[in-house]
Hints:
By secondary structure, the protein is an alpha+beta fold.
Amino acid sequence: MGINRRTFLKLSGLVAAGSLVGGISPGAAAQNAPAGIPALGAKAMLNDSSKCIGCLSCAIACKKANGLPDTYQYSPVTNGSTWTTVKFGQPTDKSLKNNTKIQCMHCNQASCVAVCPTGAARKRDDGIVLIDQETCIGCGYCVLACPFKVPGKSEETGTARKCTFCEKRLGEGKITACAEACPAGAIEFGNYDDLMAKAQKRVELLKTNGAPNAVVYGQKELGGLKVIYVMPEEPGANGIPGKPKPATGDSLLKWFSGLAMAGFLVSSPLRNIFKADEEAVAGSKGVNKDD
């Protein structure tokens, strides 16, 4: 029986997962995570929670642009079929909003990249973090390791999926779908340095206009994020951790859960892995396997 590329990668991933059970420490994997602030001139996104009106245009546009199911169904969390959402918060002042848009932060110190056993999760030179759908084995390490709880396993594909920073749209010279759709100007796309400067000025304005606890989020967290926030209140209650930590030795509970998942994959009959390939080969030859 022939083995195609995806099946080979699945098997390779199982071997890698088995090696993790054999003793690779969580901290050792995290040490390989890239660090440092985004490069000058790198593209970034600015989410201003004080302007977000909670219309969910960003979430709908994301689903349409990426062909995701349940286009108009609201989910309070991101998962394999919802890559962008909004968490609604109480306004700090009658004139200020306090809704938080959630999606992959595209961290410089990306935990998903650090823990992925197959290399499916990777960070490009421009800082965009992607999960290769052909290489992902659906082990769930990235889902457990992400401090923002962003990736999710898709029931349709069996792989981990998340926001791609609209990398295909960017390649076509467009901006992200969410930024294009926002009617309130709460989402902006542009150069990192320009958006960071704008965020800092906005926070200073908020501090003098009813939001003394306003902060810029994303400059230092996890080595710098491609998604910058203006928050009228300090993070925490809005679902974004104030001090996110990369997957290291203090994430043992998450790792033990992940290893249990890997153990399940390793113990599954190998025939299940090849089932799709057998059916595809039989179909191409017009063979009925039940005969």
